[in-house]
Amino acid sequence: MPRLPTRRGKGTLAIALLLALFAGAPAQAHAAKSYLGFDQNLYPGDAALPILRHDFSYTGYWLNPPPGMKSNPWTGKRATLRQAGFGFLILFNGRLDHELRQSDAATLGAKDAAKAVRAARHEGFPPHALIFLDMEEGGRMLPEQLAYIGAWLQGVRAQGLRAGIYCSGIEVPDGPGKTISTARDLAEHFPATPLWVANDACPPAPGCVARALPPSQSGFASALVWQFAQSPRRRQFTSACAQTYARDGNCYAPQLPHSLLTAIDLNTSASPDPSGGR
Asked: Which region is the signal sequence (predicted)?
């Protein structure tokens, strides 16, 4: 760019100001926006949806029973949530390692993929929606876990849907002087797979604060979604932001009475519908 003259009359000053304005415009126009969402195992109830929608653009949506539950309270609720204006984070609860060691992990992954696809279609999700496999155990994945995940991803994609993984982004010990996060490990084994990364450690997490942040601030730069607060809070990670949680340790949805139905996890993403579930 040519240098502006050092002598500035009125015309030169006007040109300089215009140049400065236009120079800043593209950055503002292309600034990525982030959207706040929530997830929880229990369905919050139809009556709570209008209030939740004031703060949240999307919600988690289980296709099978959530961890620790024998039934799925989200079944049949997609149309109600969609009508209320919510986008979706579609979840399928994956297997724990002790289950995988008792059978052929790859076969089990293929069967669970078929279940996930059937459930997504039964709920009326679009043909190319993104389903996240919920992997609750963290650290470096074991061979049977990788076999299960790989078969699940392949099985979902073979039916035309997109497949991602929910996993931890927190670094844990991985041998003398080394650390690993589940997100980094999975990104190496399954490149280009969308990741919903959980990292509630403060920092980088702000705690139970209903504020949309760039997912890249999660500590895993390519995260599609960042879960930055959980209910109940994990004390070993959240001591620096404990004051943002309720006294009982939960993160409650704003403007709603505290109960099991309003204790939520907080998420942020660059999309108001990260799974393309609308």
From this structure: 1-31
Does residue 37 belong to any structural domain of this protein? yes
Which residue, 76, 44, 71, 47, is CA-closest to 59? 44
* pLDDT score at 25: 43
* Residue 129 maps to a domain: yes
Closest CA relative to residue 63, chosen from 210, 182, 161 = 161
pLDDT beneath 50: ranges in the chain:
1-29
Q: Is residue 17 part of a domain?
A: no
Which string of DSSP letters, residue by residue, matches 90-159? EEEE---HHHHTTS-HHHHHHHHHHHHHHHHHHTT--TT-EEEEE----SSPPHHHHHHHHHHHHHHHHT
pLDDT of residue 31: 60
Contact predicate 266/229, CB 8 Å: yes
Domain assignment present for 134 = yes
Q: Which secondary structure element, helix H or strand E, spans residue 235, and what is its range?
A: helix 235-238
With beta carbons less than 8 A apart as the criterion, state whether 168 and 180 touch: no
Residue 195: how many CA atoms within 13 Å on its side-chain side? Answer: 28
In the chain, how many domains are there?
1
Give the residue carrying structure tokens 């939960």.
250
Q: Is 159 exposed, middle or buried (0-12, 13-18, 19+ CB in 10 A)?
A: middle
Q: 94 with 148: CB under 8 angstroms?
A: yes
Containing domain of residue 246, as a range? 33-269
Q: Where are the beta strands (DSSP E) in the chain?
A: 35-39, 58-62, 87-93, 130-134, 162-168, 172-173, 179-180, 195-198, 225-229, 265-269
pTM over 0.90: no
Question: Which residue reads 């993984």 in tokens?
Answer: 165
**Which pLDDT value is given to residue 125?**
98
Instruction: Give the model's pLDDT for residue 18.
Output: 37
Residue 32's pLDDT is what?
79
